[in-house]
Amino acid sequence: MPSPITAHITSLFTQSPFNWQQCLSDIIAAFDCTTGTIHILDAETNLLKLQAQQGLPNFLLPKMTEIPIGKGMAGIAAQRLKPVEMCNLQTDDSGVARPAAKETKVEGSIAVPMLLDGELYGTLGIAKPVPYNFTEEQVSDLMEIGAEMSRFIRSHSLQP
């Protein structure tokens, strides 16, 4: 049985027309975050293309519009097909977060791949302005939400 958060987000996919921005806003609110992105994989270019964002500074948008697989948190989550999490992006020195990511002023952050039947459809990222480790249940909910987004993308043959 899906969690209440997952059930709510899943219900959004029945709305016509579907609103990616509203979906992201609801996810951000449900996880008590302030910032987030949804990127959809463009199969032709193999780039993650920004579909919706909230809380990003305008000067960062050009760097976030298209993300190569393997670059930054979203790109690495897409490459590994696994969530990538940082308790505090501001103090991270692993090299996973790109230098410009620190300009978001967020700390606790996670990027999850949007997967369905093992196939990548994009990434979902959310973040808090404080250090934070997402719980296993939260990560599981985010992965379920990503699967529902993937199902929607596949059923609507969406390309960004």
Automatic annotation (TrEMBL):
Domain of life according to the entry:
Bacteria
Residue span, GAF domain: 22-153
The cross-references to InterPro entries, in alphabetical order and at most eight, read: GAF (IPR003018), GAF-like_dom_sf (IPR029016)
Protein name as catalogued: GAF domain-containing protein
Q: Which species?
A: Rhodocytophaga rosea
